[in-house]
Write a structure and sequence with these properties.
With about 150 residues, the chain is mainly alpha-helical. Helices cover about 75% and strands about 5% of the residues. It has one domain. Strands 1-2 form a two-stranded antiparallel ribbon. About 30% of the residues are buried.
């Protein structure tokens, strides 16, 4: 039984983290779209859908990495452990971005050309990797500080 299973607030914290990540990703995607003019018309709820799907896909990628790769890596918190996560983050970002874009388009919140899908997937993969790396850095620094100072 893991620590999260014993903590009754773990689900609430996890859900809040996914929501906050989704908002951050939505803001990043909105900025990229505005800068490069990648969509024809846009509404904020569409970006929230995209950010949320990328965030959820990132969590799924973490779980998938844990069940498939973690046992093969001697120390998962080392550089090699993080390097093995990058393909999972890229795929999750690509799938989450394309899925979010298609759902937002179907809901009438964003207009864009969905064929070919490869550029959308590639942009989503890059955003997914960048966000996962950016979100890991503060956590890793905090953990290293706690280990170093015994806190």
């Amino acid at each position: 039984m893991s620590m999260e299973d014993r903590d009754p607030n773990a689900l609430r914290r996890r859900s809040a983290r996914i929501l906050v990540e989704g908002i951050l990703i939505a803001l990043l995607i909105w900025a990229v779209h505005a800068l490069f003019g990648l969509v024809h018309w846009q509404r904020l709820p569409g970006y929230l859908i995209i950010g949320y799907t990328i965030s959820l896909a990132g969590r799924v990628a973490d779980v998938l990495w844990k069940v498939t790769i973690e046992a093969m890596v001697k120390r998962p918190a080392t550089l090699i452990g993080y390097l093995t996560r990058i393909p999972f983050w890229y795929l999750a970002g690509g799938v989450g971005y394309v899925l979010g874009m298609l759902v937002a388009k179907k809901a009438g919140l964003i207009g864009f050309y969905d064929i070919p899908v490869e550029p959308l997937f590639a942009l989503g993969g890059k955003v997914g990797c960048l966000m996962q790396i950016a979100l890991r850095i503060p956590v890793e620094r905090l953990m290293a500080r706690k280990i170093r100072y015994g806190g």
